[in-house]
Amino acid sequence: MARISFTKVQAAGNDFLVVVDADDALALSSESIAELCDRRLGVGADGLIRIVRSERLAEGRGVLREAPEAEWFMDYATRTGATEAFSANGLRAMARVLIDAGLAELPAGETLSIATRVGVKDVQPNSTGGFQTDLGRWRLAGGEPLVHAKGLAVARPGLGVEVGVPYVVVALSSEEELEALDLGVAPRIEPAHPSGLSTAFVVPQEPLVKNGVGRLRYRVHRRDLGETRSSGTAAAAAALAVRHWAGSGAPHHWSVAAEGGVLQVRMFPTEEGEHLGQAGPVRTVFAAEIDLARAEPER
Q1: Residue 242 backbone dihedrals phi, psi, to 5 degrees
Q2: Contact at 8 Å (CB) between 287 and 275?
């Protein structure tokens, strides 16, 4: 029976099991990941982040060719055991564990570059003791599909937004309509996406802009997880969609609230195009060891 060490970290209500596996020695099957993340049979989490030296993985070595400073790779899987490109809230969780474990240093003004399956994501410390992240470029993609959801009387048009993870964002008319959604049932999207889409439902706050900052609330149904208390990529997609709908005078800084907490989303220009920045809370819950019920093959 294999034993692993992990740290449980929560970031704006998203919780992660973070495992340091620097040399890629631990073979975790999707079944074991699902078992560890199960809230009744395991520890419980929205996903598992395995921290591996980039040079030890083919995907990591590909990133290193473009960004040799990205020493550490985020190998992220959701609680179902399915591999995902990256987690925006998980970047802050990974940075917290790397620094606390003495595997990275991040003094004020410096940057920690993390390799992911969709390129490098940069992390910097902020004034609140947490982190701000550069999520990279984004794009409108997927048109305006119709979204059927339990609790909505009629289907609503959405907006396809790609932020490393594909979303469709749907505007609702009120907080009451947002709360009436039953996201225990997966929304149905027409036309269907071949690999599935996560869906963010958003309500602008009144007033929409306060002190130069846009304000909105959202709920999210993740394509392989169901509803979660928060999602960094969903918050980014929601802010982008509302800015798009609001027009050219809309702000580039948004305060995005969900059940799990508030995230700050910024859009800023770079030489390669507009990037997304995000800041939010992160907290270590506990560290422990656990025996895997499923025997894992040795590498």
Answers
A1: -65, -40
A2: no
Distance of alpha carbon 151 from alpha carbon 178, whole angstroms:
9
What are the sequence ranges of the domains in the chain?
A: 3-130+283-291, 139-279
> What is the CATH code of the structural domain delimited by 3-130+283-291?
3.10.310.10
Walk along the chain (299 residues) and give the pLDDT tens digit of each residue: 578 999 999 999 999 999 999 999 998 999 999 999 999 989 999 999 999 999 999 999 999 999 999 999 999 999 999 999 999 999 999 999 999 999 999 998 999 999 999 999 999 998 887 899 999 999 999 999 999 999 999 999 999 999 999 999 999 999 999 999 999 999 999 999 888 899 999 999 999 999 999 999 999 999 888 999 999 999 999 999 999 999 999 999 999 999 999 999 999 999 999 999 999 999 999 999 998 865 454 45
Instruction: Find residue 28's DSSP bridge partners.
Output: none
Predicted TM-score (pTM) of the model is 0.94
Would 3-130+283-291 and 139-279 be classified into the same CATH topology? yes
Looking at the domain covering 139-279, what would its CATH class be?
A: alpha beta
Cα→Cα distances 75→25, 86, 94, 96, Å:
13, 8, 10, 16
Alpha-carbon distance of 98 to 224, in angstroms, equals 27
